[in-house]
Design brief:
The structure is a homodimer of 214-residue chains. Chain A is mostly helical and 214 residues long. In chain A, helix 5 packs parallel to helix 8 and helix 5 (90-102) runs antiparallel to helix 9 (182-196). The first copy, chain A, is 61% helix and 0% strand. Chain A has two domains: 19-60, Arc Repressor Mutant, subunit A; 69-194, Tetracycline Repressor, domain 2. Chains A and B meet through helix 5, helix 7, helix 8 and helix 9 of A and helix 5, helix 7, helix 8 and helix 9 of B. Chain A binds a DNA duplex (30 and 30 nucleotides) through residues 1, 4, 11, 13-15, 19, 40-42, 50-54, 56-57, 60-62.
DNA sequence: AGCGTCATGACAGTTCATGACATCACTGCT
DNA sequence: AGCAGTGATGTCATGAACTGTCATGACGCT
């Protein structure tokens, strides 16, 4: 699929390589320029020098072209869960997952992420798809947790919380004036999340005021 | 089809009333029977005794018909946030939101919810849309929190956690052998969520500050 | 009676998405 | 060398999802 295994003086392939990459790049450009609705799959294919039919061989639908590479993003988080030290508590694994995932977003990627975020945020259909991707991440993290022996309600809640923290931190990471790294922002968000619950291990169901905002 | 019908002394509408309800009911039936892909908007409209064009006047797209009434569901949670006692901590408000939301799902609704869940779960396009709805709920809860004066990272995290807890509890509520009410399951899930974080300050990796602000 | 509104029907047009089949370079086997 | 297989692509055709536009007929208001 990807690189045709390059030999030495290998004759140029019948087709330009990297069709998938060209398609997703073209899609991002065009949607950024014209908006999602006004960009047709035919235009995207044309800019990539391919036919519309080929577009749909690489991507299940028009939106999917904007989400290429999401698997590596997910892997960054999941691998960190898998690679966490033996015997680590679910909490420690969650922290490790966030740290591992943050490596996927070095500062160099911030500008590109801003652009992509602008595009995704511009249309509900794209936000919708992004939510599906993030839900997949939560599921994968939870599954990896379970694989480590974490019990059930806990694994799912950890996966969901992982995504919650990522999302909040990521949104902040993209802010124009923000300079801190994603890892630090995730750490901060996680602290705020734990700060939500009352400190004492008492029952949760009754109101218990500690520190309120006002 | 559009029998003007029934008119006693009452002013009767030109068309059968409840077009929207008939459409969403027809959609749920047909998708349950045939699957989402094999159900056309024309079929749905026909079963409701309406034209396809009218379907799109009531719903923005094919999926939306399966999500009618979601606004009242959201309102159940948001109203509880708004109506929570003055001065309650963010945590207490979150608990109140969950309790208020649970009233929207009495046991009588469980069977219907199971059917609907089966339908939604059967196709990624529908799960996608559900995620968008739940993201909207999280945003609304967060906004209502902010309205109460809750500070920013906290409000968003509370909204997201509200949805996380709901989702985990709801999934369990629908299980065939489950008999407990949604409120109890949410309470349980919330306990598990708080149990995730280490109890003692500063036990794991990240620095942990108790009460910020004030 | 006249008039505007509003939910609907009817019909045509565009875009998305997929299935069936052909093409062409490269690969590997004989 | 020759030839069948493979894989990414193109072409054509079709159906289904939406959208724009105009027409209709009952309703309420004056």
């Amino acid at each position: 699929m990807s690189v045709p295994a390059i030999g030495y003086g290998v004759p140029v392939a019948r087709w330009e390589p990297g069709a998938r990459e060209r398609l997703s790049a073209a899609a991002l450009e065009l949607v950024d320029e014209q908006g999602f609705d006004d960009t047709t799959t035919a235009q995207v294919a044309a800019r990539a020098g391919l036919s519309e039919r080929t577009f749909f061989r690489h991507f299940a639908d028009k939106r999917e072209a904007l989400f290429a590479g999401g698997d590596r993003f997910e892997a960054a988080y999941v691998d960190a869960v898998v690679g966490a030290p033996q015997g680590a508590s679910p909490w420690a694994v969650l922290v490790a997952a966030l740290e591992g995932g943050a490596t996927f977003f070095p500062d160099e990627r911030r500008e590109h992420s801003r652009r992509r975020d602008r595009v995704i945020s511009s249309h509900p259909a794209l936000r919708e798809r992004e939510l599906l991707k993030l839900a997949g991440l939560a599921r994968s993290v939870a599954a990896a947790m379970r694989e480590r022996g974490v019990d059930e309600p806990t694994a799912t809640l950890a996966g969901e919380s992982c995504v919650t923290v990522f999302r909040v931190a990521f949104e902040r990471w993209l802010r124009p004036d923000e300079t801190r790294g994603l890892a630090a922002l995730q750490s901060e968000a996680l602290d705020h999340l734990t700060g939500l619950a009352p400190q004492a291990p008492g029952s949760s169901s009754t109101s218990r005021q500690e520190c309120s905002g006002s």
